[in-house]
Amino acid sequence: MARLLTEAGATVDVPDDTGKTAMADARERGYVAVAEFLRNKGARGTGTVTVRSTLTPREAIERSLPLLVRGWQTWSDRQSCGACHHRLMIARVAALARQRGFTAATVLANDQAQFFTRSALRSEPQLRKQLATEEGVVVSALGIHGDGSSGDALNLNAMLELGVPNSPSIEARALLLARKQLEDGSWRNGLPRVPILSSDFTTTAVAARTVAVFGGPADGSEIRLRVERARQWLIEHHPLTTDDKASRLLGLRWTHASESAIRSAADLLKREQHVDGGWSQLTGINSDAYATGMVLIALHWGIGLPASDSIYKRGVEYLLRTQETDGSWFVHKRAAASNPYFESGFPHGKFQFISYAGSCWATMALMYAVAPQDAADH
Asked: What is the C-alpha to C-alpha distance for residues 30 and 28, in angstroms, rounded to an integer?
């Protein structure tokens, strides 16, 4: 492992908080071969301790938010794909930032709201055509590799959080999404791009939320029935990943499940907080900003968990402690390569896309740890 890390460019003599280097630690533990290998690579036995001061939540956001905005701008300049890890995440960040008084993303939030409004208007003729026949609904559901439902749900969710006003074109998209619901009450995720596009719980929760808000009055009875079926599916099915669990909590809230069911879903997430204050994407792996930010948001939106709660505070402390000096958070990727790799201008090389999404979740979670007036003042 030491050999692989050094071959990948790791620095051999970075000390921990006590000043101990990897070579010193290896000697103490009796790993003679590792210690000798590191010595031959130029490692030292001791190091100089560099203590990184912990920022306040507001200071951390002031570092991350401009970086996220620039990352989106670079991505959109170079790629035609909207990207779930860029547009749909930064739209949510910008919407919440505007709401919480962080002006660095106000222009972006307004621009994205206009983009989605124009996009909905342009697509209305095609949506009406697809709604006209059962075959049209099926073709739309298949989408890109079967990704019709999740793409529509996430786009509608971005519109909802940005405050895009309802319109006949958006109502048509919502009705088309509603009719993609499967007989068991769920909407299925299509092309798996873990973790962002990986969960039927996410697609079902977001679809139910958005069709309930954007469904037209003439389709009210059908929409209510579909939301009820989604609620039952969320109640009956067992979540596995952290994405599943967070989305299930939100879905139960959005479909007006019983308070006992909602509290039970929240308690599951609370129990899975790690000793370091964070959460992991899967059981048995390390905490990261993606899972931690997402869970804090789910607990805040799902049960109103305040930032003053000890669980939320520990999560915030984890995020502040793990933020990079450039304002980002590093998240290890799990998805297999799909699209050609290119540098988008965001840190972390081949891990930059999931790190971008993770930094979005972390920034959103930190926004609730800052009073809105305090955010507006800065």
From this structure: 6
